[in-house]
Structure formats: structure tokens, C-alpha cells
Specification:
The chain is of the alpha/beta class and about 260 residues long. The chain has two domains: about 120 residues, Nucleotidyltransferase, domain 5 (2-Layer Sandwich); about 110 residues, Nucleotidyltransferase, domain 5 (2-Layer Sandwich). Helix content is about 35%, strand content about 25%. It is globular and about 50 Å long. Bound molecules: beta-D-glucopyranose (BGC). Beta-D-glucopyranose binds next to helix 4.
Length: about 260
């Protein structure tokens, strides 16, 4: 690392861990080892913000005053969290951008976790240079989705909450459902088949990109799916949230 070079910071708030790293935007990769701290049991805004501050502190030297982006596993409009399916209800209507910027003493960009992964796949990953409609779906505690249309991201699509067969789709098809119910890859793939065939019939995407931690094991379930749309693992696997948050924060700072 050249003397004096600083890197933007990306921090990804998840149901089980809060992860952060400085990001080398030219490479679309971490500029230093990632730090992961378990999400506090009571994941209230106050408790989580302290963890975010701790991670920011650990990278103070490499990130300096560079832009900082933080992802939230819920709808975010203008920095305010608008849904809280898998996080403490205290986040509802919480102005995360204002609170984080005040605590950290620098402007912080706040965005939905799947949207951040979408930014990363668009700029550096599987959706780069793809024309038409790309659906990025992150499979984790919930299902996060992103729609990219000719390179433009439509934020907060929330297609994980489509009602399919009378239930909220993510409760059956998220990676957490596989773990919770101890499903075989085959049985879980059947649920993904139902989910993705429904979504492809609504949006007719040109490509589906699958992210989230489980995308590291894509070979176990993607080949079991029969869809008309090509479906590929996210190139950044589970790092897209951090990389995309740092990229989005930098793009916003330049505007
Ligand atoms: C939330 C989304 C989020 C996804 C993945 C869903 O339950 O509603 O906002 O992107 O989980 O964390």
C-alpha cells in the first residue's frame, strides 16, 4: 500500500455478524483483512452502531476520512430504515444515516444490503456489462433482491417477501430455512425452483445472479434448478455487501 493512500470503508450489518473492510475500488476487492464481530443479541440501533464504530476505528489508519457505506438488512429510503423483517424492531423509521454520521463524525451512506451486493455485481461481478434485466438475489437469513435494468439499479425491490403458495417466500426459500429445517440440497433446491420460476415469470430477466454466504456452495444447488433464465453465482460471493457499500459511498461523495 502506498504511503498516505486511504481506502473507503464498507460495513455489512447482518443477522449474525457485522463485517467490514476497506475496499480497493480499482480492484473491487478488500484492501485489508476483513473484520467480523458477532451481531449483538439485542440488535438495537444503539448496540449495532457501537459495533460499527468499533470496526471503523480498527481501520482508521487505512481509511482516514474516506467515504464510508453501511448496509442494513431492510428497506432504506433517504437514510431512514423502513422495514425490519430480520432485525430489531427499533430500526423501524430510524434515521440510520443521521445517527451513524453523528457517531462517526463523517458522512455515512446507508443502503439496503442486497442493493449493495447489486452495486458490487454490477461494477465488478457477474452483472458487469450485461444488457437488459438482471435479477440479483442474496440468500441468507432472508432473501434480498436487486433489479438491474441496463445497468441502472432499482432500489428496495424486496422480492424476497413475495407471497408464494400463501407464505412469505423467504420463510421457505432463504438459506436460513435450509439450515433451520435441516433440508437436503435437493429439497431446498425444489423450494428455490418454485421461487425463481415465479420470479422469472414476473420479470423475464436475462440473467439471475445468486449471492449470500451459501453462494460459496453454488455447485450444490444451482445445477439442480431448471429455469429458462441463465443463473450464476455472484462473483463477489458474500463480499458484495462490503464492496458495494464502499463503492456507493464513494460515488455519492463525488456527486
Ligand atoms: C429484507 C430485505 C433484505 C433481505 C436480505 C429481507 O428480509 O426485507 O430488505 O435485503 O432480507 O437481508
Amino acid at each position: 500500500m502506498a504511503q498516505g493512500t486511504t481506502f473507503p470503508l464498507g460495513i455489512d450489518i447482518g443477522g449474525s455478524g457485522i463485517k467490514g473492510a476497506p475496499v480497493d475500488l480499482a480492484a473491487g476487492a478488500f484492501a485489508d483483512d476483513r473484520v467480523r464481530i458477532p451481531t449483538p443479541e439485542h440488535s438495537t440501533p444503539e448496540a449495532v452502531i457501537e459495533v460499527v464504530a468499533e470496526i471503523a476505528d480498527r481501520f482508521r489508519k487505512v481509511s482516514g476520512d474516506s467515504p464510508m457505506g453501511v448496509t442494513i438488512p431492510g428497506v432504506v429510503t433517504h437514510g431512514v430504515v423502513r422495514s425490519a423483517a430480520n432485525i430489531d424492531q427499533g430500526w423501524l423509521d430510524f434515521d440510520a444515516r443521521a445517527a451513524l454520521s453523528a457517531r462517526l463524525g463523517r458522512p455515512v451512506t446507508v443502503l439496503n444490503d442486497a442493493d449493495a451486493a447489486g452495486v458490487a455485481e454490477l461494477r465488478y461481478g457477474a452483472a458487469r456489462d450485461v444488457q437488459g434485466t438482471v435479477l440479483v438475489a442474496t440468500l441468507g437469513t432472508g432473501i434480498g433482491t436487486v433489479l438491474l435494468v441496463d445497468g441502472t439499479l432499482v432500489p428496495n425491490t424486496e422480492l424476497g417477501h413475495l407471497e408464494i403458495d400463501g407464505v412469505d417466500a423467504e420463510t421457505r426459500a432463504a438459506a436460513a430455512a435450509r439450515e433451520r429445517e435441516e433440508l437436503s440440497w435437493q429439497d431446498w433446491a425444489q423450494r428455490l425452483q418454485r421461487y425463481f420460476s415465479h420470479v422469472e415469470n414476473l420479470f423475464w430477466p436475462d440473467l439471475i445472479v445468486v449471492g449470500g454466504g451459501v453462494s460459496k456452495k453454488a455447485e450444490k444447488f444451482l445445477p439442480l434448478l431448471q429455469l429458462r433464465t441463465p443463473i450464476v453465482p455472484a462473483k463477489l460471493r458474500n463480499d458484495g455487501g462490503i464492496v458495494g457499500a464502499a463503492r456507493q459511498a464513494t460515488d455519492e461523495a463525488r456527486r
